[in-house]
Amino acid sequence: MPLDPQTRVLLAQMAKANLTPYEAMTPQEARRQMALGSCFLERAPEIFAWEDRQIPGPQDSIRIRIYRPSSAAVLPVVVFLHGGGWVMGSIETHDVYCRQLAHASGWAVVSVDYRLAPEHKFPAGLEDALAATRWVAEQADEIGVDQRRIAVAGDSAGGNLAAAVALLARDRGGLRLAFQVLLYPVLDYYFDTPSYRENATGYHLTRAAMIWSWRHYLNRQQDGHLPYASPLRADDLSGLPAALIMTAEYDPLRDEGEAYAQRLGAAGVPVMLRRYDGLIHGFARRTNVLARARDALQDVAGALRNVGG
Fold this sequence. Notes:
With about 300 residues, the chain is α/β, with parallel strands linked by helices. It has ten helices and eight strands.
């Protein structure tokens, strides 16, 4: 279908701003640009309580931010992994979205500041994500969350990490996840799907930017074929937690997200796939300008509220 009218306006504004493409920047420049852009997102809703903590990580400590939407003694919890191509993003860039998600769903949210590439290449960020998720499960009583209702979620590269954490939790054992939310996730080291060809340029996320992100993330090209880097390449997807996968029509990553949903379903995993026609990659955090983003937030919140213990 045609571009969503509000998305068309957003793309025109981006074009007028004449931003430097990510692939033409250093990682440090790209981080500054993403952080600056996040300042123009919607004001965060009031939330009952939040706090930053340092928790043990595989190498150094990991910073997390815990959001509690109510005074309930025990809350279900979603571990959130931010997007940014594994190179950019932080707790701060996704602070508004995490507050919105906690407020809308009634779930606690734990946002993770995992290590970024290229300073810390695959699988450093993934190991941080897994360690933080395990910490939440192990410290459930202390932080007031329900060990039976732990979900992982993430957008874009964060969706990649969330999917990989679900695989690692199954494969290594000792961690039970109840649900996974993958927002327009990166799931395969491959740049020649129909959606990559159709949406290579002109829709915010470009094919060139994804090649740039993968180049910074991987130690070597061959690592892109490993299932924990490219979850779509996992031989077996059975036994994974139920999933909500969201894709956008005008997104290079659309096809890999939808292929993953199909494979999950074929493996017997309950999965909800929702394609947002007319929208672009990264739409979910733009609730200030896109009505469909506000709808998507409610879709995620509703899916979480339906997760049983």
